[in-house]
Description:
- The chain is α/β, with parallel strands linked by helices and about 625 residues long.
- Among the domains are: about 5-120, no CATH class; about 135-140 and about 525-610, Immunoglobulin-like (Sandwich).
- Helix content is about 25%, strand content about 25%.
- A hairpin with a 4-residue loop joins strand 22 and strand 23.
- Helix 8 (about 370-380) packs parallel to helix 10 and helix 11 runs parallel beside helix 12.
- Residues about 1-20 and about 105-115 have low confidence and may be disordered.
Amino acid sequence: MKIISVLLTTVALAAKITYAANCWAESLGYPCCTVTSEVIESDGSGDWGIENNGWCGIVKEGTSNCWALALGYPCCKNTVEVFEVDSSGSWGIENDNWCGIIPQETKKTTTTTTVKQQQTPPPQRPQKYNSDINTNVKKEYMTNFNNGKFEGFGTSFCWWANRLGYSDVLAEKAATAFYDKEKGLGLTIIRYNIGGGDDPTHDHITRTDSNMPGFAINPQSYGNGNYRWDYNWNSDANQRNALFKAVKKNPDEIIVEGFSNSPPYFMTNSGCSTGNFDAGKDNLKSDAYPAFAKYLADVAEHFKSSWGLTFQSMTPLNEPNTSYWGALSNKQEGCHFDEGQSQSKILVELRKALDSKGLSEIQISSSDETSIDAQITSYKKLSDEAKRAISRIDTHSYGGSQRNELRTLAENAKKNLWMSEVDSSGTAGTNAGEMGAALWLANRIIEDLNNMRASAWVIWQVIDNHISKNGYQGKKDSGMINLNGGYWGVAVADHDQQEIILTQKYYAFGQFSRYIRPGYTLIGCYNNSIAFYDGEGKKLVIVATNPASTNKTVNFNLDNFASVGYNVRVIRTSGSINNGEHWKELPSLIPYGLGFNAELKANSITTFIVEDVIW
Length: 615
């Protein structure tokens, strides 16, 4: 059909023309990729890559729309004028050579997309470099508790809320500092202390904050477990004031647990809510188990019906199998319960009491032992009925080392797991100054959660020290802490100035609580680091500490994930309150691919938020 000279010319030029005819992206104003085949994005037009910091279309082998290539001819780039039609298709002429005309309906699918002209190409990825620390983030080590969903960070309200709740100013400032997720720590768990209440004739507790009032008054006992009493629902006004101000900061996420340190004094063997005269023996009278359970259930019922707050969970035990709780103590309420029968009996009675009031939705947790190892033993010694009564194992981590063993025990028992209390005057770091207490707290959070994989982490109390020239109720306050040493709590309440004084330990807590939110999933991460994945937001949150006196580089290997985006937010706390960094937003990083390199400042805590991470 076509003259030999034209055919030979076309064949000779085929190597140069084929690329142009096959480059579908040119009709959209873009070249086709000549080197890369990495697909950065796909749309209705095809697959897109990046070369020379610009978009390019990726041509797939065997997917060309140019039917003329099989005959040794290119397809027309510009003309649609038909000069001849044969069984192969329509032919046009460009540059004095035959070219195949692609049918119009095919053209339509490649000329309607103009989105690329409105987008900015992603940045070039940096090269991976060797680092001082290499950390693998492993999604297969995700937590099994609470359906893999984290419930949050929190604090007990015993005793600081009892001390400052008289002041609306301090209570509001505390609620903002600790529970506002924009302006403060964004905590989501409150452990509300249901006070037993000591004999009103006693005056042996010397702290200004720990003499917790109870709700039961006018007790009467008629023997054989027949206890009667009235209620004063105006009691505990200070703690309740702080409680409800905090809940208002984030009512959709905050959950409240009701916990007890001691029964009311008139149900105890010693007649004192701080413990037995023999601190190693039970202090709840043997006939008062149902009465104590009823007291706790009555309080829960009143909170729900009168104040509109339903406890998510309750526990009648606090560090029960210890010798800490002695009568006439100058410190706090407390009650010993032997492992096994005593602990089992009160747990079963509380379940019965709650159910009898239609409060079956309230979970029971146990046993809040002071030591991780002791918690394992206490749970194993519970009766089968008591084990059925509880939904969650709570432990304190003041002592013990068997975190993995406790995790395995809870998993096998199909119970949820919380780290429900710890704090210390400990320090960490190397000549860290004010970051010493901060690094201790951060490293404890990382150690507890990485090994227990608990669904919550709760500090003992966020305020342990108070400043007041007048003291409170005839007692003297402890005063200001040494910021360069170790101290309990993360803030100080100044009652004279009506201020909450923040510390680097406070900002250390926020490096976790502000960015690791309820619903995220705890996954595997080590080397002074912890990681959570946000499945809804497709984000990976990593918190890392550097307790060394020199800066360190770190490589976070993310090859366990399908893909990683182009942005890593960096937030850091370091230095001192007056001259340091406090949740400081640093320049963002770009991952090198499935991972990223970063620098960890000496004696610092850094949060990395990796965006667009696909599981």
